[in-house]
Write a structure and sequence with these properties.
The structure is a homodimer. Chain A is built from four helices and eleven strands, in the order αααββββαβββββββ. By secondary structure, the first copy, chain A, is of the alpha+beta class. At the A-B interface, α1, β4 and β11 of A face β3, β4, α4 and β11 of B. Chain B binds a DNA duplex through α3.
DNA sequence: CCGTATACTGGACAGATGTCCAGCAAACCG
DNA sequence: CGGTTTGCTGGACATCTGTCCAGTATACGG
């Protein structure tokens, strides 16, 4: 029965979400007021009232900051393990210890809940032609690749990122960098994952020095 | 420098953690008081003070429920609003309506809690030289750019992604694509954000799309 | 044209909340 | 023993905060 929010209400809802995620707690009515430049707390309060009426927000009367965005639990955030280096065996994920995790919501990744997903830190520049750089974090899904997909493949005991191509029904791999051997015949091809997302944090994005 | 908590302080810390996990927000001083059966709010407050002194807890003075347990930020997920298009004014975030949100953890993004962060969907191929593609999601932070940073800049009422460079102390912008005008003199430069991360979901990464 | 919903201004009040001061008691330590 | 830390009582205050009432303006649909 929850109807849709107005544009303005959507903005308020987003601000609440954002504030909670960033500050660790929901905003007060007056913080919302200040953010939107309202002259009265009532402007913010009435928006909250409207959102509550539409079942998009829940409140605890009289309590400070007691806002809960509907479906905020539902916003599922996946913890994707990062494997810095994928050793030969791999089949046993148990023997791996992740190098940390990326957290991302399933919606923006469009990850299937059932899918087995993991991430790898890219080393080398063999895929710069596909705009994948050294240091990038590539999110992979365990499934059969299609023609043109970028995959993590096991070659000679080492894992590398390559583009998966089909020619005359026979699969082969290509490094997206002219400096690298253009084709790699795949005599026994082990595909470890298919790229579904990429995550980059430029090193030169450095902040000015902290005070 | 952070010393160990007392048994009692540990209990308080645990209660704060548990309350936040269960209720979605930290407790008030008086909720702590009630939970432990104290006769005075000061009993709880002094525990918080002690914990803060030991760097195990952080508070925002004067603000309700403004408690943050140290190390709790690990799985904190930020909601970064996506602005599909940045219009001229922009200073007024109020006039914007986000196009949704990306959720990512602060650790992997290395986002400062205080920073104002937003994301933009990249249009066009003016930055392919910097390995930024059409459709990529670029996360930007509101701050002064440094030489070499990639920035979102306002030029002639339109927002584009460019590399920010300094020559003889004068800033100018460069598109990372030979097909584009190489230099753009910046006569009145408005920097809207500095790129701190990139998020890509390849279209061709697609699921079983039949050929 | 009327009614309703949305979006806000302006002012006010009661209770919630952080904070401070002045103690008291027990445990610990040199 | 004396000093310090910890753990608490009791009360008080300023302000933070949710809430309410009254009123204005705009847009939309019947």
């Amino acid at each position: 029965m929850s109807s849709k929010p107005t544009k303005r209400q959507e903005q308020v809802l987003d601000y609440v979400r954002r504030h909670r995620a960033l500050q660790g707690l929901p905003p007060t009515v007056r913080e919302i007021q200040k953010h939107f430049g309202f002259a009265s707390p009532n402007a913010a309060a009435s928006h909250l009232r409207a959102l509550e009426g539409k079942k998009l927000l829940f409140r605890r009367p009289g309590a400070a900051r007691a806002l809960r965005v509907a479906g905020d639990h539902g916003k599922e955030v996946a913890a994707i393990p990062i494997y810095g280096d994928i050793p030969a065996g791999f089949a046993d994920t148990r023997e791996q210890q992740p190098d940390g995790c990326v957290y991302a919501d399933l919606d923006s990744l469009d990850i299937r809940r059932t899918a087995r997903t993991f991430a790898v830190r890219v080393r080398g520049d063999s895929m710069t032609g596909a705009h994948i750089l050294d240091g990038d974090l590539v999110v992979l899904e365990l499934r059969e690749p299609n023609h043109g997909n970028i995959v993590a493949a096991l070659i000679d005991g080492e894992t590398t990122l390559k583009r998966y191509l089909l020619k005359n029904r026979r699969p082969f791999l290509r490094a997206e960098n002219p400096q690298y051997p253009d084709l790699i015949p795949a005599h026994e091809l082990v595909i470890q994952g298919v790229m579904i997302a990429l995550f980059r944090k430029p090193k030169d994005a450095g902040r000015p020095i902290e005070p």
